[in-house]
Structure formats: C-alpha cells, structure tokens
Amino acid sequence: MSERDDDTGRELAGEPLREITTRGVIEIIPEDEFREALASGRKLRLKFGLDPSKPDLHIGHGVLLRKLRQFQELGHQVVLIIGDWTARIGDPSGQSATRPMLTAEDVRENAETYMRQFFHVVDRERTEVRWQSEWFDAFTLADVVRLAARFTVAQMLQREDFRTRFDAKKPLGVHELFYPLLQAYDSVAIDADVEFGGSDQLFNLLVGRELQTEVGQRPQSIFVMKLLVGTDGAQKMAKSMENTINFEDAPNEQYGKVMSLPDSALMEYLDLATDIPDEELDAIRSDLEAKSANPMDVKKRLASEIVAQFHGKPAAEEAAAEFQRVFQRHQTPQEMSEVSAADIKTYSVEQSEANAAPQYDLPHLLHDKGLVASVTEARRLIKQGAVQVIEGPGKGAVGGASAELGAGSVLKVGKHRFLRIVDSDA
C-alpha cells in the first residue's frame, strides 16, 4: 500500500470521511462492502452517468457532483458516462408518460454543454469521460437479446413508474424496458466499483449491481443521494417544474432565486448545496429554531455561498450589493438586459383606435429576450401579476398579453429579471 493509500485508510475513522459518507446520503448499498473497498486502499472507480436529454445542470445535480469531487480529493477515480444511447430512449424516471426520443445531434450538442457545466464542480484532470457508443455501437441484435435474457418482465415491473403505467393501462414502450438494462451494462463496461444516483434512480442502480454479479464481476456499491427541493419549496428541483437554480444562471439571478426561497427550505439547501461544516449547520439550525437568527440573514449567507461556487467570491459580493440596492432599497438594477425601441416593433399589436398608445406582444418579447424559458411561462407570470412596467411609458401593472412600451420603459419579470427599452439612436 502506498503512502497515499495509507493516508486514505487512516481517514476512514475520521470526521472528514464521516461527513462524506453521511451528508446528503440516504443510504449506501451495501455499506459494509463499500467501507471494505475503501479500507483496501484501492483507487475506486466511481461511476456517474449523465443522460443529456436537456442541456442545463442545476444545483440539484450539484449535490451529487460535489460528492464525486470529495471522493476525488481522497484519490479516487470518477468515470463520467455520457448516455448518448440511453438519452435517445429517454429515462422515464418519475414520468407518467413516454418521453420523446432525441436525435444523435441533439444528444451530442446537449452533452457538450453538460460536460462544460459538469467541470464547474468536478475535477476534469481526475475524471475519465466515456461515451456509451464506445460499446453499444458494436452491439448486435444477438448481444441485445442476450442482455435482455438476463432479466424478466416481472423484474422490470418492480420499477414503480413502469408498474403504475402498466396497471393503469397507459402506454409503456418495450424500448423503455431496455433503459435500466443499458444503464446497468455501463457498469459492466467500465468495471465500476461504486455508482452514484438520486433516490429516483435506485431501481436502475440496483440492476447494474445485479448484472455485474451475473457476469462474474465484483458488484458495485451504490450511493443513494437525497434530492434537493426546488425554489418553490415543494417539488424536487427539475427543469420541467421551472424551479431550478442553474449552474450558468447569472450571479444576480442565482442570488435572487435563493433569496426567494421559503424559510422552510433553508436548512435543506445549506446541508445539500454548500460545504459549510456540520457543526456550523447545527448552530445555524439551533439559532433559527430559537428565533435568535433572522432567516433573511441566513438566506444571504446561503445565496453568497452558492454564487461563489459558480462565479467566485467577488461576483457573490457584487450580487449581494445589487440585491440590497434593488430589492431592499427598491431601486432599479445598475445593469440589465436592453432592447432598442426599433427592435421591439416586430412585436407590435394592432390597435382598434388610431390614436391609441402602441401596444406590444409581451409573452413573445419576454421569451425571445431570454427573460423566461417559454411563452407559456410568460403568460403564466402575467396572469399571476408577476410582470409589470416599473419605469417609463406604460408604467404600472400588466393586465394582459400586451402592454404599452417605449424608450425608457423598464419591464420587471418576477423578482429578479429586468428588461429596459432604450432609444433606437442611443
């Protein structure tokens, strides 16, 4: 055993490893096998798979990625598997319906974006990147049948979302049953020692362990990780829920989203989305319960921690100052997105009266200028009263899908998104 391996072994009983193996972790399956492998001093191969079905990573993903980084710092090897085959199937985890298949081009484009964001957190130099196509491109129909023969339909229907759809007589494609098998074969292909996944992936992780045993490999241990709640404080963080804090959100947007969290989500975020030591978290929790700490101050600490992770400490300090200026002093931001009065003419809405003030199509304008993820989201925010003109022509609450705008108008969308209309000659 090398000196480095001896050091790793000595850490087994220490506080750093206790935090790594418990914080954010629901369970390790089986824990005794994992600890035995860790104590052996071997460099463990830590499998993490990403299916690039959508291009953005959020801090819910970051819970897992920070765990991988922690094990890298103990000298272990992360193996990132890009699911360029399974993404074309679409993992139906937690879904009540079949997901649409993606093209190979879509997958490749999303994967490049994913990897750029992945290495915001995980050390690139200590990561082995593998693509499923390395082994699945060579698969024949005979290979597929042999793989499928190792499992039964009854086993696949133990997966809750499959069983629920089957019992409800909702569509369940045969191709979807292959998703857990293909993900399991990834573990065989890279000879994984440990696989990491959220609690919604438990079935797939266990299938990988079973397949390794079937083919004579030492079965992987499994780290089942907690899922971070979204900014709504209710549903798990997911793009489809529009409740995410993304890795590549601008600093002010990340900070503002954290400040909008319900107080009930504070400790979960501090625990799962930061590296604040456990003993300090215990003190914060006690202070909040005793009402000796102001939740607003704790949120500011949390917001600064998250922004600093992705943009650095100076950006976090600037975002904090901007938040105080805009939201506590009710001033407009120093910097915001801009569009010229000439450019918004394409969004003009025909008026019934000749002398009426010019009106513009807000849902499409807000979407095209990047203030909302979709036209549907813009319409929902308008309906909720979350869109208003706070300066210039048309100032006031927006009551419908169109509004008066002109040079000098400032649109506010939600709590932390702004758009200024500037003079065409400015």
Provide structural commentary:
- With 426 residues, the chain is of the alpha/beta class.
- The protein folds into three domains: 3-229, Rossmann fold (3-Layer(aba) Sandwich); 251-328, Orthogonal Bundle (Tyrosyl-Transfer RNA Synthetase), CATH 1.10.240; 337-422, Structural Genomics Hypothetical 15.5 Kd Protein In mrcA-pckA Intergenic Region, Chain A (Roll).
- It has helices at residues 3-10, 15-22, 31-39, 59-72, 86-89, 104-118, 133-136, 141-148, 153-156, 160-167, 174-190, 202-214, 251-259, 266-273, 278-289, 295-311, 313-328, 362-368, 375-383, and strands spanning 25-29, 45-50, 77-82, 127-131, 194-198, 221-225, 337-340, 348-349, 359-361, 387-391, 396-397, 402-404, 410-413, 417-422.
- The protein has a six-stranded mixed β-sheet with strand order 1-6-5-2-3-4, with helices on both faces. A five-stranded mixed β-sheet has the order 7-14-13-10-11. It has a three-stranded antiparallel β-sheet with strand order 8-9-12.
- Strand 5, helix 12 (202-214) and strand 6 form a beta-alpha-beta unit.
Question: What is the structure about, briefly put?
Answer:
It contains 19 helices and 14 strands.
